């Protein structure tokens, strides 16, 4: 059965938080995976990394990582100093993940998170810069046993990889067993003509999968067609992780960066979000059962 996961910032308004608390909470609710932003790993001592990994092992949680790359480290930048600084920064993050025996990094990790503030008539030069950077970063990922997943995101969060096809093309150009593709239902809803076709297009190259509604609430609460989504996952015999990535609270760094300008559930207390996380797990399990996954 596919491993099911949840993103830590469902509960927290800032990117860094008490990781140990959420490792235990995810396990208590019944999840297999906890995903969180990778950048805080850079601030952690080796002892801290080791203790979080030991706790995760003890409660049976796999840790996976995601990031929205600060434009100061944009590895697609035409400014060679920025680009090389970004390569070094991402190699350091991948190395920290490797120290925790982590297997997966995803997100907008191949260019700065956001879109260029200038007219862009041709993105190929930025793409070439990103690919040049990635061919270097991927060697560190190979050494550390980390799969570096490129996530196709909507046009308001990035310009290089908006569609499943663009993610596949990018991965093919990097050409490493450690490059992967991640699709996210929230982003696909904006960019793809058909979410089912996008999943089938990526097929056995699909390394990880993010779920979230059209407005990033819990799956089943918005207008996405979850039968279409799980049917397509079943058709490609998808066996990898399914990580839910809902964002429902206004405020903090997360509200700012994800553009959440109202609470998307009533009274989002910790208890209320716990209940919602339990509901998501049951909903996804029921869809997997329905579509013979
Ligand atoms: Mn995502």
Could you tell me the radius of gyration in angstroms? 18 Å
How would you spell out the order of helices and strands?
A: EHEHEHEHEHEHHEHEHH
Q: What ions, cofactors and ligands are bound?
A: manganese (II) ion
N→C terminal distance: 7 Å
Morphology call: globular
What helical percentage do the residues reach?
40-55%
Walk me through what this model shows.
The protein is of the alpha/beta class. It has a single domain (4-290), classed as TIM Barrel. Helix content is 44%, strand content 14%. It contains 10 helices and 8 strands. It has helices spanning 19-29, 46-59, 80-99, 124-144, 164-174, 185-191, 195-202, 226-235, 252-258, 270-290, and strands at residues 4-7, 33-37, 62-68, 104-108, 147-151, 179-184, 206-211, 241-244. Helix 1 (19-29) links the parallel strand 1 and strand 2 (33-37). The N and C termini lie close together (7 Å). The relative contact order is 0.14. Manganese (II) ion (MN) binds at residues 151, 184, 210, 245.
SSE layout:
Layout: E1 4-7, H1 19-29, E2 33-37, H2 46-59, E3 62-68, H3 80-99, E4 104-108, H4 124-144, E5 147-151, H5 164-174, E6 179-184, H6 185-191, H7 195-202, E7 206-211, H8 226-235, E8 241-244, H9 252-258, H10 270-290
Parallel strand pairs: 1-2, 1-8, 2-3, 3-4, 4-5, 5-6, 6-7, 7-8
Helix pairs in contact: 1-2, 3-4, 7-8
The structure holds manganese (II) ion.
Residues 151, 184, 210, 245 line the site of manganese (II) ion (MN).
């Amino acid at each position: 059965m596919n491993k099911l996961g949840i993103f830590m910032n469902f509960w927290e308004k800032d990117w860094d938080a008490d990781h140990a608390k959420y490792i235990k909470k995810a396990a208590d609710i019944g999840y297999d995976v906890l995903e969180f932003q990778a950048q805080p790993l850079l601030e952690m001592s080796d002892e801290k990394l080791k203790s979080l990994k030991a706790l995760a092992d003890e409660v049976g949680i796999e840790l996976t990582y995601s990031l929205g790359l600060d434009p100061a480290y944009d590895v697609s930048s035409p400014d060679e100093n920025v680009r090389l600084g970004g390569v070094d920064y991402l190699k350091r993050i991948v190395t920290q993940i490797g120290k925790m025996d982590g297997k997966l990094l995803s997100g907008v990790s191949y260019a700065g998170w956001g879109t260029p503030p200038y007219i862009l008539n041709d993105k190929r030069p930025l793409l070439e810069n990103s690919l040049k950077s990635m061919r270097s970063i991927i060697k560190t990922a190979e050494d550390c046993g980390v799969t570096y997943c490129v996530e196709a995101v909507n046009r308001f969060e990035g310009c290089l990889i908006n569609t499943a096809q663009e993610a596949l093309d990018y991965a093919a150009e990097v050409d490493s067993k450690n490059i992967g593709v991640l699709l996210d239902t929230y982003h696909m809803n904006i960019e793809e003509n058909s979410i089912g076709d996008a999943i089938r297009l990526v097929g056995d190259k699909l390394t990880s999968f993010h779920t979230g509604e059209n407005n990033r609430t819990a799956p089943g609460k918005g207008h996405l067609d979850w039968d279409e989504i799980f049917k397509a996952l079943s058709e490609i015999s998808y066996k990898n992780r399914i990580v839910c990535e809902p964002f429902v609270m206004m405020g903090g760094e997360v509200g700012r960066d994800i553009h959440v300008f109202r609470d998307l559930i009533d009274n989002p207390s910790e208890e209320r979000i716990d209940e919602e996380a339990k509901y998501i797990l049951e909903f996804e399990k029921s869809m997997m059962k329905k579509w013979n996954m």
